[in-house]
Design brief:
By secondary structure, the protein is an alpha+beta fold. It is built from four helices and eleven strands. It is 28% helix and 29% strand. Bound molecules: 2-oxoglutaric acid (AKG) and fe (ii) ion. Fe (ii) ion (FE2) binds next to loops. The site of 2-oxoglutaric acid has 9 residues, from strand 10 and strand 11.
């Protein structure tokens, strides 16, 4: 019967991905997920080299608070420098980055109907002494931001003394709980943009990353 055949094809075409399944479970249970070695050492090296090349060319801008209609550079809130990544003009490193991100997005849309339609990503460099005060990623009045994603690109020997933890604030039955996540190379953190307040603690050595948002429009 036709319907059954169609169903069968849909099943054949689908391979469960344990990593993405864990991300989904984490998001449902605690609104965030940390995946180590999402990018391997070679991929991190390539992405870091690309970031540094653009940084040296001085392409980065001081990050602003707010969107284009509400642009204020507030050093007291955040001290990072950013460069938006255009997927259509992406180089080799960024293509590797987007192909992994895209396969995860497809998986999320397919298995949990997340409805992710667009995404935006930027490189970020936090020079020594900078931070990003506690905030919610919807401060830009952008309700389309569904999931926030950060991918860390520092060198292998990142130490706790370097600071720069991502602190995520959870509400556990009315009590606040802080989770500190170190920016280890290859690690990604995904969390609910509309739900979780977070901050980047002051860094003692430059901290490199790609940050982005998966959006519903
Ligand atoms: O770099 C991080 O760990 C988080 C960055 C962040 O919160 C942001 O750019 O909105
Ligand atoms: Fe943020």
């Amino acid at each position: 019967m036709l319907a059954t055949e169609t169903e069968l094809f849909e099943q054949l075409d689908f391979t469960e991905n344990p990593l993405f399944e864990r991300v989904i479970t984490d998001l449902m249970e605690k609104k965030y997920s940390v995946v180590d070695n999402f990018f391997d050492a070679q991929e991190v090296d390539l992405l870091r080299a690309t970031l540094m090349e653009k940084y040296r060319e001085d392409d980065f801008k001081k990050a602003a608070i707010g969107n284009r209609t509400n642009e204020v550079v507030a050093k007291s809130v955040r001290g990072d420098f950013i460069l938006w990544i255009n997927e259509t003009t992406a180089g080799p490193a960024e293509n590797i980055f987007f192909s992994k991100i895209n396969s995860m997005v497809e998986y999320l849309n397919r298995t949990c109907f997340m409805g992710i339609l667009t995404k935006e990503f930027h490189y970020a460099v936090y020079p020594e002494g900078t931070f990003y005060k506690r905030h919610l990623d919807t401060f830009q009045n952008d309700g389309r931001r569904k999931l926030s994603m950060v991918c860390y690109l520092n060198e292998e020997n990142w130490k706790p003394e370097n600071g720069g933890e991502l602190a995520i604030y959870l509400d556990e039955n009315g009590t606040e709980k802080e989770i500190d996540i170190y920016p280890l190379p290859g690690r990604i953190v995904i969390f609910e943009s509309q739900e979780l307040e977070h901050e980047v603690k002051p860094v003692k050595v430059p901290r490199l990353s790609i940050t982005g948002w998966l959006k519903t429009r």
